[in-house]
Amino acid sequence: MANLLKLIKNTTAYKMVSLDKEHGRLSHAYMLFTPDKKHVKDYLKIFAKLIVCKSKGYCDCCRECRLIDEEKLTDVKFYPLKDGDKISADDVTEIVNDSFIKPYEGDKKVYVITDASLTNPAGQNKLLKTLEEPSEGVHILIGATGEYSVLPTVKSRVKKLEIPLFSQEDLFSALKDDFTDVERLKTAVSNSDGTIGGVARLYNDEKFFKAEDLAKSTLKNLNTSKDVLKVSNEILSSGVNLLDYLSALENLFRDLAVYYTGGKIFNGTLVGFFDTLNGFNRASCIYALDKITDSRKREFFNNNDTMLLERLLLSILEGKYKWKKL
Questions:
Q1: pLDDT by residue (tens digit) across 252-310?
Q2: Residue 99: is its pLDDT beyond 80?
Q3: For residue 210, is pLDDT > 70?
Q4: Distances, alpha carbon 182 to alpha carbons 194, 202, 215, in Å
Q5: What contacts 153, CB < 8 A, 6 or more positions away?
Q6: d(CA 283, CA 286)
Q7: Is residue 224 scored above 70 in pLDDT?
Q8: What ranges in 237-304 are assigned the alpha helix state H?
Q9: Strand ranges (DSSP E) for 167-265?
Q10: Element spanning 77, H or E
Q11: Virtual torsion, Cα 131, 165, 286, 282, nearest 10 deg
């Protein structure tokens, strides 16, 4: 399991709740926003432990912390009761009614709603009074991957926390013990969306690595207009999704632009590859990035893949030679 605490402990959200606990002013309700839907429950468990554990911060080894990880602590309840389910009206009624009962083991009860989008507007409305006037010692943690799924009346009654996108260096440090192929991990991290879930998805996606190999081949072998058809056929016959290829190509050109300005590239193994390329410079990379963005838009409107790809490759060549002459 990735070292989530290592990532989260430096966030404003973690520091905020830690200070609230230290000064005895824990909010009755927190809403945690994160783009990482796959790990939102894991993040919420950290904050549940932070609230319940008797240690400063949390110890991660006491009975309470261990049982929260296992979702078995009596005073910390997770909804939905089964992963993949919606949160029903009966679940919300249970939270409301149960919140009037004193904690069984300690002085706090925590209700964890793992994703606000799993609760329909009627269910969210039913929670309003409990959010506004909870019983003593009751805390509600709500996860959300976007504000669109949360009613304004709910947002106005909770303390907002945000887990930001993480830096490539922080992600690599937190994941290196779990994903042992270092070069593969660096590639996944440098192409990810800044979330643990994004890195894990790419690390285990063979099609992604095939798309990256095709993107490298494009930069290496696209030298004249005669190469366009060959390169295009190689990509289209590979079985790789065109949008995945465009993403890989975009990331390579972005790193290549950094390389030409003398900046630091997170995935240092690319430097050796970039050293073998001829004809590109920073301006042609920026030009290529603009054309890739245009191709993404065209793909969205179901443009013919062959025409789209050939047009893109010709544009990359055009920029390569245009900026080379200037």
A1: 999 999 999 999 999 988 999 999 998 899 999 999 999 999 998 888 776 788 999 99
A2: yes
A3: yes
A4: 17, 13, 21
A5: 124, 125, 128
A6: 5
A7: yes
A8: 242-260, 269-274, 282-300
A9: none
A10: strand 76-79
A11: 150
> 119 near 85, Cβ under 8 Å?
no
Percent of the chain residues past pLDDT 70, beyond the cut: 98
pLDDT digits (tens, 9 = 90+) for 123-146: 999 999 999 888 999 999 999 988
Fill in the amino acid letter for 309: L
Q: What is the pLDDT of residue 146?
A: 84
Residue-wise pLDDT for 54-94, tens only, equals 998 888 889 999 999 999 999 999 999 888 889 988 999 99
For 26-50, letters b (16+ CB in 10 Å) and e give bbbbbbbbbbbbebbbbbbbbbbbb
Is residue 140 within 8 A of residue 106, CB to CB? The reply is: no
Say which residue the tokens 């200070």 belong to: 19
Instruction: Dig out the tokens for 255 from the structure.
Output: 């790193």
Separation CA 311–CA 319 (nearest Å): 12
Print burial letters for 76-109: b (CB count within 10 Å at least 16), e (below 16).
bbbbbeeeeeebbeebbeebbeebeeebeebebb
For tokens 């996606």, the residue is: 205
Going edge to edge, which strands form the sheet with 76-79?
A: 76-79, 109-113, 138-144, 29-33, 159-162
Contacts of 204 (CB under 8 A, 6+ apart): none
